[in-house]
Amino acid sequence: MKLKYYINLNKGITFLVMLILLFYFKQWNNPAAWLYLSLHGTYGFLWVIKSRIFPDKAWEKKVSVWFGILSWFSLLIYWIPGYILMSRNIQVPAWYLGLCSTVYIFGVFFHFTSDMQKNVMLEIHPGNLITDRMMSLSRNINYFGEFLIYLSLALLSMTWITFIPLISFMVFYWSFNIIKKEKSLSMKPGFSEYKEKVKFFIPFIF
Q1: I need a labelling partner for 130 at 20 to 30 A (CA). Which of 20, 35, 106, 110 fits?
Q2: What does the pLDDT look like over 103-153, one tens digit per residue?
Q3: Strand partners, 27
Q4: Tens-place pLDDT, residues 73-89
Q5: Can you give the residue ranges of every domain in the chain?
Q6: Exposure pattern of 18-39 as b/e (b: 16+ CB <10 Å)?
């Protein structure tokens, strides 16, 4: 079975899991809990929709059942911020809710628009190096967008513990994928000039 099915199942049920946590811990009067449900739950649905409309080839490969199950369980750490927020009845000021929402919105924009651009451009010009539009902001703008999404969720829980899942995935998974991608792109004509002009991760900064 394809890896994407295990990932999509995890992402797709996030809304239901967070809704169960919200009611189990009696958080129906906590604005932060409802916002978390909205943000993380919506992201899960958007991920599944994206997988159907413009899928990432990395998730299209077939894997063993054991690897698929391991991948599914590894994604459970992304639910930690929601569990902590609701189990501890964390309250946050209104301005902070607005801040987290803003970070999330920018994350969704960078993540999904860059993936859409990559998917369309590779269909039209397969094998070509993509250097314009979203890809002119950062060489890894899709990962930067995903970082902002999970950063907003970690910030909502207001504890350093929730940054562990994000940092763990960045160090032990994202970094290897990014290095592999950069190595592949370095073989394409024009990459040296592209690398000189466009930042590695954070637009215009790093």
Answers
A1: 106
A2: 999 999 999 999 999 999 999 998 899 999 999 999 999 999 999 999 999
A3: none
A4: 999 999 999 999 999 99
A5: 3-197
A6: beebbeebebeebebbbbbbeb
